[in-house]
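Researcher: I'd like a candidate sequence for this fold, 376 residues long. If you have to choose between options at a position, lean toward the conservative one.
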């Protein structure tokens, strides 16, 4: 039923977060939330969708949790707390859940899996498929993460003051990893990363990096339909059909950036992506933003992308002079090949494209490099 599926997407995280707070039991919280959805599937087609689907599901899940707590004879304090699930705390609970799932004491793969399962409500099978592991393997990964939270007594709360600003980049890094995983493979994961970023932006409206990350996701995702041709091969940005880009997503992202100050690397990444949003890429603007980004995030990959931007803004020789030394890195060789081709040195460029292709497994990226060599 569509109404139940929509309620699942919109309210799962809050229901689970609230039940975790009052019971302290992650598995019980998820089981009771799942039971509530199953009851909704049975009752809503017959009785109609309630006016407040989230509240209805929370009440049913709470009652299931209460029954379980009573049967297990858990201490009276938790029984009293469980009878008073406060709707006004739902957002606080959800934020606490996100920060707990993304706690730095957990391995990165565990943070990713736990966020998708517990906050987003994706099935273990879907998560396993996206990360190319078996369902039992992913189940063990999620179970170990929950056990680590309990054994290490990781606090179920939102950090405050300086601790919040120290922890927030780790949360955003998990969302960014999720988006990239989905963008390159499983669309469901990319969609969930956008939804979670939108959720977090609503929970933390004063954090510019959260809003900037959402804008970045929207801008990148807007190009999804044009990124591959009918064979599934990659289409480079300069060759994409921009009429296929999602203009509504671009407009939303640009509106977010208009009201968001520049306070970190995601804000700069988002403005670089915005430089491509028009009918043509504004390479000079993009190059200027990369000049800023390389000061904030002086990594080899940023330097490589900066060289690309300068190569398109000020000529290929300018880009070639800025290339960082990244020995045997296929992407660096491919960038050198592209700039060399644009500088008119065709034979050298062909060799470089083939050299880059030889260093990566067979797939769309390799075919795209070999296709460029053949064109030359």
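Model: Candidate sequence:
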């Amino acid at each position: 039923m569509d109404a139940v599926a929509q309620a699942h997407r919109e309210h799962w995280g809050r229901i689970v977060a609230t039940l975790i707070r009052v019971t302290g039991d992650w598995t019980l919280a998820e089981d009771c939330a799942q039971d509530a959805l199953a009851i909704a599937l049975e009752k809503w087609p017959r009785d109609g969708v309630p006016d407040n689907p989230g509240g209805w599901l929370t009440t049913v899940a709470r009652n299931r949790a209460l029954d379980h707590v009573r049967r297990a004879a858990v201490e009276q304090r938790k029984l009293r707390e469980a009878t008073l699930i406060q709707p006004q705390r739902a957002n606080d609970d959800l934020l606490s859940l996100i920060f707990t799932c993304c706690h730095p004491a957990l391995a990165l793969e565990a943070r990713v899996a736990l966020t998708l399962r517990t906050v987003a409500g994706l099935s273990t099978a879907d998560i396993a498929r996206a990360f190319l592991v078996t369902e039992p393997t992913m189940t063990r990964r999620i179970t170990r993460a929950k056990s680590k939270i309990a054994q290490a007594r990781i606090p179920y709360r939102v950090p405050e003051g300086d601790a919040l600003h120290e922890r927030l980049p780790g949360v955003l890094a998990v969302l960014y990893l999720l988006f990239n995983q989905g963008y390159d493979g499983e669309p469901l994961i990319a969609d969930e990363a956008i939804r979670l970023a939108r959720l977090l932006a609503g929970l933390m409206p004063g954090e510019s990096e959260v809003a900037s990350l959402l804008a970045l996701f929207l801008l990148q995702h807007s190009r999804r339909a044009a990124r591959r041709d009918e064979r599934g091969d990659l289409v480079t940005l300069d060759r994409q059909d921009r009429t296929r880009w999602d203009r509504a997503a671009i407009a939303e992202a640009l509106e977010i950036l208009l009201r968001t100050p520049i306070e970190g690397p995601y804000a700069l990444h988002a403005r670089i992506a915005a430089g491509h949003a028009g009918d043509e890429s504004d390479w000079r603007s993009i190059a200027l933003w990369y000049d800023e980004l390389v000061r904030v995030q002086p990594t080899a990959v940023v330097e490589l992308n900066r060289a690309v931007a300068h190569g398109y803004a000020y000529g290929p020789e300018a880009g070639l002079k800025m290339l960082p030394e990244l020995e045997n890195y296929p992407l660096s060789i491919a960038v050198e090949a592209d700039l060399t081709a644009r500088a008119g040195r065709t034979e050298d460029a062909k060799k470089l494209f083939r050299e880059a292709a030889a260093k990566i497994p067979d797939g769309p990226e390799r075919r795209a490099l070999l296709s460029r060599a053949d064109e030359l």
